[in-house]
Amino acid sequence: MAEPNLVKIAYQALQQGKGLVGIAHKEISTKLMELMVPEAIPQTTPVTPNLLFELRNSIKELEEIDWLEAEEGFYPKSLLFEAPWFEWLLKYPLVWLDMPSTWNRRLKRKFQELPLEVNKEKYPEYYLQNFHHQTDGYLSDHSAGLYDIQVEILFNGTADAMRRRVISPLKKQLNSSFPEVKASSLKLIDIATGTGRTLQQIRSAFPKCELTGLDLSASYLKQASKYLNNGENDLVQLIQGNAEKTPLLENSFHALTCVFLFHELPGKARQNVLNECFRLLKPNGILVIADSIQKNDSQNFLQVLDNFDRIFHEPYYKDYIRDDMNSRITNAGFSSIQSNSYFMTKVWSAKKSIS
Ligand SMILES: C[S@@+](CC[C@H](N)C(=O)[O-])C[C@H]1O[C@@H](n2cnc3c(N)ncnc32)[C@H](O)[C@@H]1O
Q1: 177 lines ligand 1 (CB under 6 A)
Q2: Measured between alpha carbons, how far is 295 from 47 in angstroms, rounded to an integer?
Q3: For ligand 1, what atom is nearest to the CA of residue 127?
Q4: Does the CB atom of residue 11 touch ligand 1 within 6 A?
Q5: Percentage of residues in the chain having pLDDT higher than 70
Q6: Distance 56 CA to ligand 1 centre (A)
Protein backbone atom coordinates (compact mmCIF):
# COMPACT_ATOMS: atom_id res chain seq x y z
CA MET A 1 0.00 0.00 0.00
CA ALA A 2 1.32 3.49 -0.88
CA GLU A 3 2.47 5.57 2.10
CA PRO A 4 0.18 8.55 2.79
CA ASN A 5 1.93 11.76 1.73
CA LEU A 6 1.90 13.77 4.94
CA VAL A 7 3.01 17.02 3.32
CA LYS A 8 0.16 16.79 0.80
CA ILE A 9 -2.31 16.03 3.58
CA ALA A 10 -1.01 19.03 5.52
CA TYR A 11 -1.41 21.23 2.41
CA GLN A 12 -4.97 20.00 1.86
CA ALA A 13 -5.80 20.54 5.54
CA LEU A 14 -4.42 24.07 5.41
CA GLN A 15 -6.46 24.87 2.31
CA GLN A 16 -9.59 23.39 3.89
CA GLY A 17 -9.00 25.43 7.02
CA LYS A 18 -8.57 28.64 5.02
CA GLY A 19 -11.71 27.80 3.04
CA LEU A 20 -13.72 27.31 6.21
CA VAL A 21 -12.48 30.59 7.69
CA GLY A 22 -13.44 32.38 4.44
CA ILE A 23 -16.93 30.86 4.39
CA ALA A 24 -17.53 31.49 8.10
CA HIS A 25 -16.31 35.08 7.77
CA LYS A 26 -18.71 35.76 4.90
CA GLU A 27 -21.67 34.03 6.62
CA ILE A 28 -21.20 35.97 9.86
CA SER A 29 -20.58 39.32 8.16
CA THR A 30 -23.70 38.87 5.99
CA LYS A 31 -25.79 38.05 9.11
CA LEU A 32 -24.36 41.15 10.83
CA MET A 33 -25.20 43.29 7.83
CA GLU A 34 -28.76 41.88 7.79
CA LEU A 35 -29.13 42.91 11.42
CA MET A 36 -27.48 46.31 11.26
CA VAL A 37 -27.97 47.67 7.72
CA PRO A 38 -30.37 45.36 5.86
CA GLU A 39 -30.72 48.03 3.13
CA ALA A 40 -27.04 47.50 2.24
CA ILE A 41 -27.49 43.79 1.39
CA PRO A 42 -26.74 43.40 -2.33
CA GLN A 43 -29.35 41.69 -4.49
CA THR A 44 -27.60 38.50 -5.58
CA THR A 45 -28.80 35.22 -7.07
CA PRO A 46 -28.63 32.44 -4.43
CA VAL A 47 -26.00 29.79 -5.10
CA THR A 48 -27.67 26.45 -5.91
CA PRO A 49 -26.35 23.13 -4.48
CA ASN A 50 -25.22 22.21 -8.02
CA LEU A 51 -23.19 25.38 -8.40
CA LEU A 52 -21.71 24.89 -4.94
CA PHE A 53 -20.65 21.41 -5.98
CA GLU A 54 -19.02 22.78 -9.17
CA LEU A 55 -17.22 25.47 -7.20
CA ARG A 56 -15.86 22.97 -4.69
CA ASN A 57 -14.68 20.72 -7.51
CA SER A 58 -12.98 23.60 -9.23
CA ILE A 59 -11.15 24.53 -6.02
CA LYS A 60 -10.05 20.89 -5.63
CA GLU A 61 -8.70 20.90 -9.20
CA LEU A 62 -6.83 24.14 -8.54
CA GLU A 63 -5.27 22.72 -5.38
CA GLU A 64 -4.33 19.49 -7.16
CA ILE A 65 -2.48 21.45 -9.87
CA ASP A 66 -0.88 23.63 -7.20
CA TRP A 67 0.40 20.50 -5.47
CA LEU A 68 1.49 18.75 -8.69
CA GLU A 69 3.48 21.73 -9.93
CA ALA A 70 5.27 21.91 -6.58
CA GLU A 71 6.04 18.16 -6.89
CA GLU A 72 7.34 18.75 -10.41
CA GLY A 73 9.73 21.35 -9.01
CA PHE A 74 8.27 24.54 -10.47
CA TYR A 75 8.41 25.98 -6.93
CA PRO A 76 9.35 24.61 -3.51
CA LYS A 77 6.65 22.86 -1.49
CA SER A 78 7.39 25.19 1.42
CA LEU A 79 5.80 27.97 -0.64
CA LEU A 80 2.42 26.24 -0.29
CA PHE A 81 2.50 27.02 3.44
CA GLU A 82 4.08 30.47 3.31
CA ALA A 83 2.21 33.57 4.54
CA PRO A 84 2.73 36.17 7.25
CA TRP A 85 0.35 34.18 9.46
CA PHE A 86 1.05 35.99 12.72
CA GLU A 87 0.71 39.42 11.14
CA TRP A 88 -2.56 38.41 9.47
CA LEU A 89 -3.88 37.12 12.77
CA LEU A 90 -3.07 40.41 14.48
CA LYS A 91 -4.66 42.43 11.69
CA TYR A 92 -7.78 40.31 11.30
CA PRO A 93 -9.83 42.25 13.93
CA LEU A 94 -9.21 45.40 11.85
CA VAL A 95 -11.07 43.76 8.93
CA TRP A 96 -14.15 43.57 11.18
CA LEU A 97 -13.70 47.09 12.50
CA ASP A 98 -13.45 48.36 8.93
CA MET A 99 -16.65 46.63 7.83
CA PRO A 100 -19.29 49.22 8.85
CA SER A 101 -17.58 51.85 6.70
CA THR A 102 -17.67 49.53 3.67
CA TRP A 103 -21.40 48.85 4.28
CA ASN A 104 -22.02 52.60 4.48
CA ARG A 105 -20.17 53.16 1.21
CA ARG A 106 -22.20 50.48 -0.51
CA LEU A 107 -25.48 51.80 0.93
CA LYS A 108 -24.82 55.45 0.06
CA ARG A 109 -23.13 54.54 -3.23
CA LYS A 110 -20.11 56.60 -2.25
CA PHE A 111 -17.35 55.28 -4.46
CA GLN A 112 -14.88 58.14 -4.34
CA GLU A 113 -14.14 58.44 -0.63
CA LEU A 114 -10.39 58.90 -0.68
CA PRO A 115 -8.00 60.39 1.89
CA LEU A 116 -8.14 64.20 1.69
CA GLU A 117 -4.37 64.51 1.35
CA VAL A 118 -4.32 62.50 -1.90
CA ASN A 119 -3.00 64.57 -4.78
CA LYS A 120 -5.54 63.55 -7.41
CA GLU A 121 -3.49 64.95 -10.25
CA LYS A 122 -0.98 62.13 -9.81
CA TYR A 123 -3.45 59.42 -10.79
CA PRO A 124 -5.68 58.53 -13.75
CA GLU A 125 -9.34 59.31 -13.09
CA TYR A 126 -10.44 55.66 -13.27
CA TYR A 127 -8.12 54.84 -10.36
CA LEU A 128 -9.61 57.37 -7.92
CA GLN A 129 -12.30 55.08 -6.56
CA ASN A 130 -13.04 52.70 -3.72
CA PHE A 131 -12.59 49.48 -5.69
CA HIS A 132 -14.49 46.69 -3.86
CA HIS A 133 -15.63 49.45 -1.42
CA GLN A 134 -12.11 49.38 0.02
CA THR A 135 -11.61 52.09 2.64
CA ASP A 136 -9.35 54.79 1.09
CA GLY A 137 -9.30 52.91 -2.25
CA TYR A 138 -5.70 51.86 -2.85
CA LEU A 139 -4.41 55.08 -1.37
CA SER A 140 -3.54 54.53 2.29
CA ASP A 141 -1.37 52.38 4.55
CA HIS A 142 -4.58 51.21 6.27
CA SER A 143 -5.92 49.84 2.97
CA ALA A 144 -2.55 48.25 2.08
CA GLY A 145 -2.39 46.58 5.51
CA LEU A 146 -5.75 44.84 5.09
CA TYR A 147 -5.70 44.01 1.37
CA ASP A 148 -4.02 40.57 1.48
CA ILE A 149 -6.29 39.24 4.23
CA GLN A 150 -9.38 40.56 2.44
CA VAL A 151 -8.38 38.85 -0.83
CA GLU A 152 -7.68 35.58 0.97
CA ILE A 153 -11.15 35.72 2.54
CA LEU A 154 -12.81 36.67 -0.76
CA PHE A 155 -11.33 33.62 -2.54
CA ASN A 156 -11.73 31.26 0.43
CA GLY A 157 -7.97 30.87 0.82
CA THR A 158 -7.14 30.18 -2.83
CA ALA A 159 -5.67 33.58 -3.83
CA ASP A 160 -2.02 32.48 -3.70
CA ALA A 161 -2.77 29.17 -5.43
CA MET A 162 -4.30 31.23 -8.27
CA ARG A 163 -1.34 33.65 -8.33
CA ARG A 164 1.07 30.68 -8.54
CA ARG A 165 -0.47 29.64 -11.85
CA VAL A 166 1.76 32.20 -13.55
CA ILE A 167 4.89 30.28 -12.52
CA SER A 168 4.83 27.21 -14.77
CA PRO A 169 4.16 29.12 -18.03
CA LEU A 170 6.90 31.56 -17.02
CA LYS A 171 9.45 28.80 -16.36
CA LYS A 172 8.61 26.76 -19.45
CA GLN A 173 8.67 29.73 -21.80
CA LEU A 174 11.69 31.45 -20.33
CA ASN A 175 13.59 28.19 -20.77
CA SER A 176 12.65 27.98 -24.42
CA SER A 177 13.03 31.71 -25.20
CA PHE A 178 16.29 32.35 -23.36
CA PRO A 179 18.04 28.98 -22.91
CA GLU A 180 21.44 30.65 -22.88
CA VAL A 181 20.67 33.28 -20.22
CA LYS A 182 21.85 32.43 -16.69
CA ALA A 183 19.16 32.54 -13.97
CA SER A 184 21.01 35.39 -12.25
CA SER A 185 20.87 37.50 -15.44
CA LEU A 186 17.11 37.11 -15.98
CA LYS A 187 15.08 40.27 -15.37
CA LEU A 188 11.40 40.07 -14.48
CA ILE A 189 8.88 42.80 -13.70
CA ASP A 190 5.51 42.38 -11.99
CA ILE A 191 3.12 45.14 -13.09
CA ALA A 192 0.45 46.30 -10.58
CA THR A 193 2.32 44.34 -7.97
CA GLY A 194 0.25 45.71 -5.08
CA THR A 195 1.53 44.33 -1.79
CA GLY A 196 3.92 42.02 -3.66
CA ARG A 197 2.23 38.64 -3.06
CA THR A 198 2.86 37.55 -6.66
CA LEU A 199 6.52 38.61 -6.46
CA GLN A 200 6.91 36.55 -3.30
CA GLN A 201 5.64 33.47 -5.13
CA ILE A 202 7.87 34.23 -8.12
CA ARG A 203 10.95 34.80 -5.97
CA SER A 204 10.61 31.32 -4.45
CA ALA A 205 10.53 29.87 -7.96
CA PHE A 206 13.28 32.11 -9.39
CA PRO A 207 15.51 32.88 -6.38
CA LYS A 208 18.35 34.30 -8.49
CA CYS A 209 16.35 36.37 -10.95
CA GLU A 210 16.47 40.20 -10.78
CA LEU A 211 12.97 41.31 -9.75
CA THR A 212 11.12 44.59 -10.12
CA GLY A 213 7.60 45.53 -9.05
CA LEU A 214 5.56 48.50 -10.26
CA ASP A 215 2.34 49.94 -8.88
CA LEU A 216 0.52 53.27 -8.69
CA SER A 217 0.06 53.07 -4.93
CA ALA A 218 2.94 54.21 -2.73
CA SER A 219 1.22 52.63 0.29
CA TYR A 220 0.90 49.24 -1.39
CA LEU A 221 4.55 49.42 -2.48
CA LYS A 222 5.57 50.24 1.09
CA GLN A 223 3.77 47.11 2.25
CA ALA A 224 5.42 45.11 -0.55
CA SER A 225 8.82 46.43 0.50
CA LYS A 226 8.21 45.31 4.09
CA TYR A 227 7.59 41.74 2.94
CA LEU A 228 10.10 41.55 0.09
CA ASN A 229 13.02 43.66 1.27
CA ASN A 230 13.39 42.29 4.77
CA GLY A 231 17.12 41.69 4.56
CA GLU A 232 16.91 37.97 3.79
CA ASN A 233 17.17 38.12 0.00
CA ASP A 234 18.42 40.31 -2.82
CA LEU A 235 16.61 43.63 -3.03
CA VAL A 236 13.50 43.82 -5.18
CA GLN A 237 13.24 47.15 -6.95
CA LEU A 238 9.83 48.76 -6.33
CA ILE A 239 8.72 51.60 -8.56
CA GLN A 240 5.70 53.88 -8.31
CA GLY A 241 4.20 54.44 -11.74
CA ASN A 242 1.28 54.08 -14.09
CA ALA A 243 1.36 50.76 -15.95
CA GLU A 244 -0.01 52.54 -19.04
CA LYS A 245 3.15 54.59 -19.34
CA THR A 246 6.00 53.56 -17.08
CA PRO A 247 9.22 55.49 -16.52
CA LEU A 248 11.23 52.41 -17.63
CA LEU A 249 13.36 51.83 -20.73
CA GLU A 250 12.08 49.70 -23.60
CA ASN A 251 13.40 46.14 -24.13
CA SER A 252 14.37 45.89 -20.44
CA PHE A 253 12.85 42.62 -19.20
CA HIS A 254 12.92 38.94 -20.16
CA ALA A 255 9.52 38.38 -18.53
CA LEU A 256 6.58 40.42 -17.31
CA THR A 257 3.71 39.32 -15.08
CA CYS A 258 0.51 41.12 -14.21
CA VAL A 259 -2.00 39.68 -11.76
CA PHE A 260 -5.56 40.90 -11.03
CA LEU A 261 -5.19 44.30 -12.73
CA PHE A 262 -7.10 44.17 -16.02
CA HIS A 263 -10.60 43.78 -14.50
CA GLU A 264 -10.03 47.12 -12.72
CA LEU A 265 -9.20 49.06 -15.88
CA PRO A 266 -11.40 50.63 -18.55
CA GLY A 267 -10.93 49.08 -22.02
CA LYS A 268 -8.68 51.84 -23.34
CA ALA A 269 -6.34 51.56 -20.33
CA ARG A 270 -6.30 47.75 -20.72
CA GLN A 271 -4.95 48.19 -24.23
CA ASN A 272 -2.47 50.88 -23.14
CA VAL A 273 -1.08 48.58 -20.44
CA LEU A 274 -0.66 45.70 -22.90
CA ASN A 275 1.10 48.02 -25.35
CA GLU A 276 3.40 49.14 -22.54
CA CYS A 277 4.09 45.51 -21.55
CA PHE A 278 5.17 44.88 -25.15
CA ARG A 279 7.46 47.90 -25.08
CA LEU A 280 9.11 46.86 -21.80
CA LEU A 281 9.87 43.29 -22.88
CA LYS A 282 13.03 42.29 -24.71
CA PRO A 283 12.61 40.56 -28.08
CA ASN A 284 11.39 36.99 -27.35
CA GLY A 285 10.28 38.21 -23.90
CA ILE A 286 7.41 36.47 -22.13
CA LEU A 287 4.15 38.01 -20.92
CA VAL A 288 2.06 36.15 -18.32
CA ILE A 289 -1.23 37.63 -17.12
CA ALA A 290 -3.62 36.28 -14.51
CA ASP A 291 -7.04 37.81 -13.97
CA SER A 292 -10.69 36.94 -13.45
CA ILE A 293 -12.20 34.30 -15.71
CA GLN A 294 -14.47 35.82 -18.35
CA LYS A 295 -18.02 35.24 -19.52
CA ASN A 296 -17.05 32.73 -22.22
CA ASP A 297 -14.82 30.64 -19.97
CA SER A 298 -17.47 28.89 -17.93
CA GLN A 299 -21.24 28.79 -18.42
CA ASN A 300 -21.50 27.26 -14.93
CA PHE A 301 -19.83 30.18 -13.21
CA LEU A 302 -21.71 32.99 -14.97
CA GLN A 303 -23.82 33.48 -11.87
CA VAL A 304 -20.71 33.85 -9.70
CA LEU A 305 -19.34 36.54 -12.04
CA ASP A 306 -22.71 38.31 -11.97
CA ASN A 307 -22.90 38.15 -8.15
CA PHE A 308 -19.32 39.47 -7.84
CA ASP A 309 -20.34 42.45 -9.94
CA ARG A 310 -23.40 43.09 -7.72
CA ILE A 311 -21.57 42.73 -4.39
CA PHE A 312 -18.44 44.77 -5.04
CA HIS A 313 -17.76 48.15 -6.53
CA GLU A 314 -15.89 46.99 -9.63
CA PRO A 315 -16.86 49.60 -12.23
CA TYR A 316 -15.08 47.98 -15.20
CA TYR A 317 -15.76 44.32 -14.41
CA LYS A 318 -18.87 43.96 -16.60
CA ASP A 319 -16.91 45.28 -19.56
CA TYR A 320 -13.82 43.21 -18.73
CA ILE A 321 -15.63 39.86 -18.61
CA ARG A 322 -16.91 40.48 -22.15
CA ASP A 323 -13.64 41.85 -23.48
CA ASP A 324 -11.69 40.01 -26.17
CA MET A 325 -8.36 39.88 -24.37
CA ASN A 326 -6.77 37.68 -27.04
CA SER A 327 -7.37 40.40 -29.64
CA ARG A 328 -5.98 43.03 -27.32
CA ILE A 329 -2.86 40.95 -26.64
CA THR A 330 -2.42 40.41 -30.40
CA ASN A 331 -3.02 44.11 -31.11
CA ALA A 332 -0.24 44.99 -28.68
CA GLY A 333 2.11 42.94 -30.90
CA PHE A 334 2.31 39.61 -29.04
CA SER A 335 2.05 36.16 -30.59
CA SER A 336 1.92 32.50 -29.42
CA ILE A 337 -0.99 33.31 -27.08
CA GLN A 338 -2.13 30.50 -24.80
CA SER A 339 -4.68 30.55 -22.01
CA ASN A 340 -6.02 28.30 -19.26
CA SER A 341 -8.54 28.74 -16.46
CA TYR A 342 -8.15 27.69 -12.85
CA PHE A 343 -11.14 28.19 -10.53
CA MET A 344 -11.84 31.97 -10.80
CA THR A 345 -8.61 32.87 -12.58
CA LYS A 346 -7.60 32.83 -16.21
CA VAL A 347 -3.93 32.81 -17.16
CA TRP A 348 -2.69 34.05 -20.52
CA SER A 349 0.85 33.72 -21.78
CA ALA A 350 2.28 35.29 -24.92
CA LYS A 351 5.58 36.13 -26.54
CA LYS A 352 7.15 39.26 -28.01
CA SER A 353 8.33 37.44 -31.12
CA ILE A 354 11.00 38.89 -33.34
CA SER A 355 10.04 38.76 -37.01
C1 LIG B 1 -6.53 44.02 -7.40
S2 LIG B 1 -4.99 44.70 -7.03
C3 LIG B 1 -3.86 43.40 -7.51
C4 LIG B 1 -2.56 43.47 -6.78
C5 LIG B 1 -1.62 42.27 -6.93
N6 LIG B 1 -1.17 42.09 -8.29
C7 LIG B 1 -2.23 41.00 -6.39
O8 LIG B 1 -2.02 39.94 -6.98
O9 LIG B 1 -2.87 41.06 -5.34
C10 LIG B 1 -4.77 45.87 -8.30
C11 LIG B 1 -3.49 46.66 -8.15
O12 LIG B 1 -3.32 47.40 -9.36
C13 LIG B 1 -2.81 48.67 -9.05
N14 LIG B 1 -3.15 49.53 -10.21
C15 LIG B 1 -4.37 49.86 -10.69
N16 LIG B 1 -4.27 50.62 -11.79
C17 LIG B 1 -2.94 50.76 -12.02
C18 LIG B 1 -2.19 51.42 -13.03
N19 LIG B 1 -2.78 52.09 -14.02
N20 LIG B 1 -0.85 51.36 -12.96
C21 LIG B 1 -0.22 50.69 -11.97
N22 LIG B 1 -0.88 50.05 -10.99
C23 LIG B 1 -2.23 50.07 -11.02
C24 LIG B 1 -3.48 49.04 -7.74
O25 LIG B 1 -2.78 50.06 -7.06
C26 LIG B 1 -3.48 47.69 -7.03
O27 LIG B 1 -2.31 47.53 -6.27
Answers
A1: no
A2: 17
A3: 16
A4: no
A5: 99
A6: 28
- 214 touches 232 (CB < 8 A): no
Q: Using CA positions, which residue lies closest to atom 10 of ligand 1? A: 261
- Give bridge partners of residue 69 from the DSSP assignment: none
82-104 residue pLDDT tens: 999 999 999 999 999 999 999 98
The answer to whether the CB of 263 is under 6 A from ligand 1 is no
Q: Please tell me if the CB atom of residue 255 comes closer than 6 angstroms to any atom of ligand 1.
A: no
Q: Which residues contact 11 (CB under 8 A, 6 or more apart)?
A: 63, 66, 67, 77, 80, 81
**Confidence check: pLDDT of 286 > 80:** yes
Q: What's the CA gap between 176 and 66, in Å, rounded?
A: 22
Confidence of residue 146 (pLDDT cuts 50, 70, 90): very high
Number of C-beta neighbours around residue 117 at 10 A: 7
Q: How many Å apart are CA 148 and CA 145, to the nearest integer?
A: 7
Domains in the chain (CATH in brackets) are: 6-159 (no CATH), 166-351 (3.40.50.150)
- The Cβ of residue 12 has, within 10 Å, a number of other Cβ atoms equal to 16
- Report the separation in Å between the CA atom of 2 and the middle of ligand 1, taken as the mean of its atom positions: 45
- Ligand 1 centroid distance, CA of 4 (Å): 40
